[in-house]
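Annex B.
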Amino acid sequence: MLKGRNYIDPEDLSLEELDELFDLGKEIVKNEKDFIHVCDGKILATLFYEPSTRTRFSFEAAMLRLGGGVIGFSEPGSSSVAKGETLADTLRTVSCYSDIIAMRHPKEGAPQYGHNACTVPLINAGDGGHQHPTQTLTDLFTILSAKGKFDGMTIGLCGDLKFGRTVHSLIKAMSRYSNNKFVLISPDELKVPNYIKEQVLDKKSIPYTEVERLEDVIDDLDVLYMTRVQKERFFNEADYVRLKDSYVLDLEKLKNAKKDLAILHPLPRVNEIAVEVDDDPRAWYFRQVKNGMYIRMALIAKLLGVK
Ligand code: CP
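Aspartate carbamoyltransferase: predicted structure tokens.
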């Protein structure tokens, strides 16, 4: 039963609950018109303390397509945050006006800290370089669409594996399924943090390798998850400039890839996937964008407990 719960960490949902959510997501994709009134009279608040296109718009589109309404801010400076209001007071206040809240915050752990002040379900829409659980739902739903399963795959994650919160959440999520192995492709400075390796991969004895060259491993992959170098999380510009062009996936590199490889990217992209790849049938990232809206529709409906 998901009604009334928060969704802050990818592991807040059991595998059975995830299956239920994906089943509902599939039903919404198939019969969207059957869901256009399920959230009549309900209000979603989107509190975005950091920039976003996909996450905020997909949450808002999801609620509107379910018949509900939307309030919120994308510029915290336009709210009483600018006058020094605490996160807890903001969440408690917005709980009075809304039925469910989606919040993106630059501080890692902000939703864990803030949820006690919230009297309605709180969804983590990304906290610093930590987690992005609804992107993970989007990624899982897309992997299910592309591969029809979650297990027995070789999953390559490429780019900024240090600051990329979607990477951390996806490793956590895919580690819950059997017989997956990970290939972690990054420059030395942008490797997956040790706490993910120790607390997730090593703890569960999940096989993984760390390499620097995508070309050396691309032929082995079933899923390739490309990521952007996260400029906003670097402490100095020079490091960003040195590392920003580390990887560019183009059709030449894809020549050695499997015919049924699924290429995902949480987006936005900068230049790490050449535009020429967009029309390749293995490119799933724009279908992934749409899946993000459908799975957020399913999540909102489940957390609100609407039929
Ligand atoms: N994937 C993602 O989180 O995109 P936005 O930053 O545009 O929301």
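DSSP finds ten helices and nine strands in the chain. Strands lie at 43-48, 69-73, 100-105, 122-127, 154-158, 181-185, 208-211, 223-226, 262-264. Further annotation is deferred to the next reporting cycle.
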